[in-house]
Amino acid sequence: MDDKWRRRYDALASNRDDNADAVRRLSRKCSRAEEEARDKEGQEEMRRRRREEELVAQVQGLTLERTELKKQLEGQPDALLTDADLDGKAKALAEKERAHKRREDALEALQCNVALRTYEVEEYGRQKQKEAEERLTKAQRASEDAREREMQVGAREAALFKEEADQKEREESIREREESLREREGLLRTRAEELASEVENAESRLRERESAVERYESELEAHRSRVEGELTQSKERVERTLREKLEEIKKRKEEANKDIMRRKKAFRSEVVERTLREKLEEIKK
């Protein structure tokens, strides 16, 4: 009996040692599995963090792109779907603004030229009128001088018979001068009429130019209103497109976070299940 129980005790002790060794091996395997699980979990966490950083960088890049687009599109072109189209539209609007500025400069130069031409015509008319008045005054003075000389000749006629012929010649000369003055006066009147006609024509042309300028200003105002309306609609469409893109990015980020959490949970459950399976297999062995 004693030998039997001793053998059984020895067998149990041997089994106990074997079981202890198995437990130690299983414990070491569990420790290694836990370390591997922690390493994998750390690697997965690092990958998740890198993915989150990439998503944040993408969101920041899109936000910066949106800010730059807003800066470029403030008071500018229609909202389009590509950067190339936006750049082209911005260049086209800038060219329109430059053309508009050139038209305004041309209009201002035209107004200056019209004002200068009007002043020149008025100054020319005043100058010619002044010259005509001076010539008429000279003619009147010459006529008065001639009459005075005639009176002097009449007073001296009895005493100065010799000068009668000279007086007649002077009278003839005076008559010729008077005729010349009358002819000049007629020419002056004709010239004055021509100047008046030219002034009237210039005023008519000036009125036509003023009406053309008014029409151009009305067309320019209509064009400006139309461009401002188009720019307002463009700005609204761009802002609406950017809001939709931001909403889409937010949704993608949320879906990515949810996917990361699902994968993390699935990985943890898989590691735990595999570890338990290995432990059970070791125990069974």
From TrEMBL:
Biased amino acid composition, Basic and acidic residues: 1-24, 31-53, 125-151, 159-187
Domain of life, per lineage: Eukaryota
Protein name as it appears in the record: Uncharacterized protein
Alphabetical keyword list: Coiled coil
Ranges where the record places region Disordered: 1-53, 125-187
Residues in coiled coil: 189-270
Organism listed in the record: Odontella aurita
